[in-house]
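Provenance

Sequences were taken from public entries as deposited. Structures were produced by running a predictor on each sequence independently, with no templates supplied. The record for FAD dependent oxidoreductase domain-containing protein from Ambrosia artemisiifolia is shown for reference.
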Amino acid sequence: MDDNRSQDHQPKRVVVCGGGIIGVCTAYFLAKKGAAVTLIERSSIAGAASGKAGAFLALHMCDDGPLSSLARASFGLHCSLAKELDGPRSYGYRPLTTLTISMGESEVPSKSPILPPWVDGQVKPGEIIGTTENTAQIHLGLFTQSVLAKAVTDYGVEVLTAVVENVQVEEESVVVKVGGGGVIGGDAVVLALGPWTSKVLGLSSKFKVHGKKVHSVVLEPKDGDAITPHALFATYYPAQNMGPVDPDFFPRPTRDVYICGPSVEVEIPDRPELVFPDPESIEMLKRVAGIVSSYLTNDNVTIKSEEAGLMPCTDDELPIMGEVPGMKRCYVASGHGYWGILFGPASGVAMAELVLDGHASVVDLDCFGPTRFVIKVTISEYVVIARISLRFMHVRFIVQF
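Predicted structure for FAD dependent oxidoreductase domain-containing protein:
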């Protein structure tokens, strides 16, 4: 994306709310494009899901659907950013081979040539679904911090630690009210607060962003050099009479292995610090790790972290990006779901273009606009009103008869 800053015009003042990957990428590309940006984060940068996700990138795994162009554009931007920010050194960017496996306590270990040597447990190989040409990984927390550091140093982004309480749209500007009575003014605001986005006063009636809790563990093997860069999408069949579970394994350049489990929708707490892991889910992930590899059994690893994060999701599993209906100059970028880490850069570019140019060229945002929820609500309300009217007419007919 070109740097279109001009010395002849007063820069547009944009407030970005949220210090996760979507908010940080939006702030970065807005500032690079010439805006004067203030980023507001309530706790720490990448302190919620953006610091606890597996950070897997794939060029092709969203093909044949409405997310395809967003995924492909963003995969390319991740590659460009890795060159610009020295990604391999700064945040562990590297290509991966990706494969599927299935496993269970009764499975016989396989000698399949597609399995890396460290996958020596009770595993049945599936297929290779990604190569070093179309799948990669990053360390998400380090990526988000690296992008923000560049935005602050090179493009003057200001970072404010505060809780966003309300957004007011005025005739020619917006006002963001924060905890403690503070007020930040701007020409536009972008809300990128993850699952907390629709908690901003007045927005819950316009769209809904859910929170799905995803558990993860990070294990550091004693022989970390033996773990090659192979991502595993697994299906685990427990010995008990239970349904299958789908954990993902992502070895990282930091000589550890990130493992995450399935997601479950939960109530969104008041702040990210109140998202706690469930002990049984953590134990399941550690047990599965030992089934996959002898290098990952309890006796052969140091546990670096046991965490849970809230993944922002929507009812139709598409992100929400666009101007909030009825609120001029107030924009939203949230609900990116499982692929939010992949989508971060292209979402940032698209929001920067939308705010500053009036439209996005990097990707078509029509199917991601928040107006799709308003239309659904309007239709539902119309149906309810119609039913009430019919019932009233029926009662009147009976009484008159």
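The mean pLDDT is 89.
Helices lie at 21-32, 68-84, 87-90, 140-155, 279-292, 340-357, 371-400.
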